[in-house]
Amino acid sequence: MRIKLLVLPLILAFGAYGQEGLRGLVKLDFQVPQPTSNKAFKESFTGIMDLSGSLCLSIRGFNFGGFYRYKQFQVQANKIANITTVQMVHGTGLRLGYDHWISDKSIFSSSINIGYNWISYNRVSCQGQAPAPFKETGISLEPNANIYFLIDDGFGIGLMASYHVLTYAFDPAPICLDQFHTYNDSDKQGLTQGFSFGFCVYYDLAREASSDY
After folding, report:
1. Strand, helix or coil at 44?
2. pTM of the shown model
3. Alpha carbon distance 68, 29 (integer Å)
């Protein structure tokens, strides 16, 4: 009886079982990013992790909601020796997407994230001086493509790929990387961009609530 009372508000809020009703969706992804631009960023950093979670409302396949994303990049020895500077990007914003049911057990999903991002660094090394605090911000556009395979009612796992464009042109000088590596002026031109690939999770709140009720 307690379980029924707890899940009843979810059923009322997100709709009953079925692809047509209003539903709540939780989507998570775990990816590895690869820098593609600008050249200075690509030559300096290697992608470590790209993690994201979103909570969306969905009706007739269309879904919208909010997301949070964290990306981390690090200078590796094969890029610049003896430097381990880390770039961290925290982003949040709006997610818009569409889920297409290929079958009862598989979903193809496409979406775009539009967000505001905070960029910061740690492990900064500078010759003959203390590192100066440095933080930047930027707007991001990130198209995503996912395919989910449902392994239980309302729960699936799958694969995804995404590409992000960030309105922040990476410059190695403020974090002293130009003291350890030579960059041309043309290397610093262009917005920061990257490709990510990894795993994703799909969780349908309405389906789970309907099954338990």
Report:
1. helix
2. 0.85
3. 11
